[in-house]
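Duplicate of #3305? Posting structure anyway:
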């Protein structure tokens, strides 16, 4: 799946940058969104999780908090009413240097979300 710059689509004069951005990718079986912003001095990514979750998203269960490769990482499973064909998902957030990141997926199966997040985080390179 190819990602597109949502910021640039909404306003071509204001694409995503190092300091803040919003990317998305979708097909009939998945919707993935990634966002980031600078946040110097912040160690808790909770605010980014709150930012990426929309009114149509509901957290499920407890928040999973981990330290992965020196990054504070949080994850939660979600239900969503954004689309009836993708009612499940997950969302995570983490801090890398002076930037905070958030990631969200909508999926037709509840068991797809966590492995997708783990795979995305595995490929993420934190070079603060």
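Output from current build:
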């Amino acid at each position: 799946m190819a990602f597109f710059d949502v910021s640039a689509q909404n306003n071509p004069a204001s694409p995503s940058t190092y300091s803040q951005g919003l990317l998305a990718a979708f097909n009939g079986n998945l919707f993935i969104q990634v966002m980031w912003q600078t946040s110097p001095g912040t160690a808790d990514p909770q605010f980014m999780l709150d930012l990426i979750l929309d009114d149509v998203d509901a957290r499920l269960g407890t928040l999973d908090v981990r330290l992965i490769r020196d990054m504070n990482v949080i994850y939660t499973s979600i239900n969503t009413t954004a689309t009836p064909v993708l009612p499940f998902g997950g969302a995570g957030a983490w801090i890398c240097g002076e930037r905070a990141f958030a990631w969200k997926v909508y999926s037709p199966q509840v068991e797809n979300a966590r492995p997708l997040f783990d795979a995305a985080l595995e490929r993420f390179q934190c070079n603060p």
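Confirmed duplicate; merging threads. The two ends are 27 Å apart (CA to CA). The first strand starts at residue 4 and ends at 5.
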